[in-house]
Design goal:
- This protein has two domains: 301 residues, Hypothetical protein af1432; 58 residues, no CATH class.
- 62% of the residues lie in helices and 0% in strands.
- The protein contains 19 helices and no strands.
- Helix 7 crosses helix 10, helix 10 crosses helix 15 and helix 16 crosses helix 18.
């Protein structure tokens, strides 16, 4: 399918920080995707928490499987809208590269521990990973991705960090947080695909864990609607087959809703180019009705899953692990590898080292440094 006029055309990319000749067989965004897939940070996502810690079970989502699901949903929608699928996939596969071990629990603990030294933002860290921390090429640090992929990776950014980035790269990926413009439509789409993916798979993982029940989920209008539709068409369905069918229908309807609502916005604002789309209000969106139903689902998951006492207990112990690691490395930098220990900015080196850890490596480091396992289930 040809690209729409408002899509990000790889032939018109704003380029890379370090200019390179074009590849003979791949577009610029295909090259970005391939570099991300082959990166060390991408491989680490397989052992990084989504909601449930890595040692709690083999079938729960990890950051890697979540990123793959976001890429699949994003490509499906991008194809219909005439957007660049490869750019969507590249952003989706890179958007969580900066996440700490233990999910948001680890991020919050690291941010608090380093509050007086710049704090920690996982979106900013994802950009650091692709711009600086990956070391795979002789000519430069980082993966040297295109502007458009880097722009999508930096999903959120605090005003203070945006100003710092803007000073380092005038008119670069942080400029939109200062002037109030939008990222590419591909980046907007990936953001929404991220939300759709985690809402759906957290239902699945929540039920699998025993922390959520179908009865509880039936109080959520979005889920209840498709659960009823699945039963109406397949009265014999029970258990996980019924759950999967309800989730499948819910995902499909959200995709169709995004396509319809976005097409209506595109028709209203009629952007004639990718840059024109950046100047418009956000264009990739749910309908008002689906946005409200999605909000209700997120609120339900926050109350009943993310703040479940069992999850909170695990979260607390995970945060203790991160705080202990920060204190240990600041007190004895030699406990880190030399390329981290010898950096002039010790606090940022500690943040980079810990953020790059998988769940299981962080637990092993904690046990090594303290002599005490943080979780009885640690093997």
């Amino acid at each position: 399918m040809p690209l729409a006029p408002y899509a990000s055309d790889p032939a018109r990319s704003r380029g890379r920080r370090h200019p390179q000749p074009a590849a003979p067989t791949r577009s610029e965004y295909q090259r970005d995707r391939d570099r991300i897939v082959h990166s060390t940070a991408f491989r680490r996502l397989v052992y990084k928490t989504q909601v449930f810690l890595n040692h709690e079970g083999d079938l729960y989502r990890t950051r890697l499987t979540h990123s793959l699901e976001v890429a699949q949903l994003g490509r499906s929608i991008a194809r219909t809208l005439g957007l660049d699928e490869d750019l969507v996939e590249a952003i989706a596969l890179a958007h969580d590269l900066g996440h700490t071990p233990f999910g948001h629990a680890g991020q919050d603990a690291l941010n608090e521990a380093l509050r007086e030294h710049g704090g920690f933002e996982h979106n900013l860290q994802s950009l650091r990973v692709v711009d600086q921390l990956e070391q795979r090429y002789p000519e430069h640090d980082g993966l040297n991705l295109t502007f458009e992929t880097r722009e999508g990776v930096l999903k959120h950014c605090s005003p203070s960090n945006a100003r710092k980035l803007e000073a380092q790269e005038p008119g670069g990926v942080a400029r939109r947080f200062i002037d109030g413009t939008q990222p590419s439509l591909e980046a907007q789409l990936t953001n929404l695909a991220d939300e759709i993916a985690y809402n759906a798979h957290d239902i699945d993982d929540g039920v699998r864990s025993g922390l959520l029940s179908t009865e509880q989920l039936l109080t959520v209008p979005l889920f209840a609607r498709f659960h009823a539709a699945a039963l109406a068409e397949h009265p014999q369905l029970t258990g996980r087959r019924l759950l999967f069918e309800a989730i499948r229908r819910m995902l499909s309807q959200q995709i169709y809703d995004v396509i319809g609502a976005t097409q209506a916005r595109l028709q209203k604002y009629a952007p004639h180019s990718a840059d024109a789309a950046r100047q418009a209000p956000p264009l990739v969106c749910f309908s008002d009705a689906m946005r409200e139903e999605s909000r209700q689902l997120k609120s339900f998951l926050m109350r009943h899953l993310y703040r479940h006492p069992q999850v909170m207990a695990t979260t607390g112990r995970a945060q203790d692990v991160v705080r202990t690691l920060v204190d240990a490395y600041l007190a004895a930098p030699s406990e880190m590898p030399p390329d981290f220990a010898q950096r002039p900015d010790l606090h940022r080196a500690v943040a980079d080292y810990i953020a790059g850890m998988t769940d299981r490596f962080a637990l092993r480091e904690h046990a090594r440094l303290t002599g005490t396992p943080a979780f009885e289930a640690l093997s």
